[in-house]
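Reopening this ticket.

The earlier resolution said the output was attached, but the attachment link was broken on my side. Pasting everything inline this time so it's all in one place.
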Amino acid sequence: MQPNERLAVIDLGSNSFRLVVFTAGDGWWKRTDEIYEPVRIGEGLAATGRLGEEPIGRALATLDVFAHFCKASGLEEGSIDAVATSAIRDAENAESFLERAQDRWGLPVRVLSREAEARYGYLAAVDSTTLTDGYVLDLGGGSMQLVRVADRLARESGSWRVGTVRMTERFLPANGPAKRRQIEELCDHVTRKLGQVSWLSDAGEASSGRRLVGIGGTVRNLAAAAQRAAGLPSNGVQGMVIEREALEDLVRRLAALPAAERSSVPGIKPARSDLILAGGIVLRAVLRAGGFEGLEAHVRAVQARLRGK
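Inline output:
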């Protein structure tokens, strides 16, 4: 990016759509605008394999808002990069949606492959941390990406359809508290997926002290809740480590509450209250499978890495 150049990155995720504008200076850049909408386009996808008409309607309305913002801000086609991830990538009617989106939006949307999504998450994490050897986790509404890092390079990676929207719809009740059996079934599902990943549970690698860096809204929200539970100052979650025991406690607290009441737990956002339990269970399964003592939360998102692709 050149001085005074602006770039808008639009992330069409399974749970939320986000538009972020970056502005460059002389040798630096910063985020100058952001719009976030909990579109939930992946709602119902796990059951039908298709994007539903209501989620599509919410998505198109949000893209209208983004288009008006870009026009009013003087952002032209060459300065806008729109990408889609798990839900749109996997849906049987993805092409139909993308055509409708382009008709309304006027710009093409790039659909990221699983490999590309994992790589962008890895780049976002290593760009914003001192991670040299360890793992990067990116948990979204539709999928989760894991990357093994050695000497700051991505050595292995994988992507699994265990995102918070999918897992909530498949395993957890819509309203009431979650039963122990439901939690165990979700945890077992994730554990089976990860049990086939030799590079995650490599016996030749020391199981203690390994570093796991996490990005994504669910990770940040759980880190905020862990921070509040520990009585720490609420001054941002960058670098906050969610210890395994603290995550176990959070899962127990959230599971005991109806979905609508989970935002009563300090730090949990109302927009994520129905999905946050599934996120906590998925992350707990990762910690157990990999022998990690905790998860280090970071605020740098995939959008920031797309800025410099």
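Reporter confirms the inline version is readable. The chain has two domains: 6-112, 115-305. The first strand starts at residue 6 and ends at 12.
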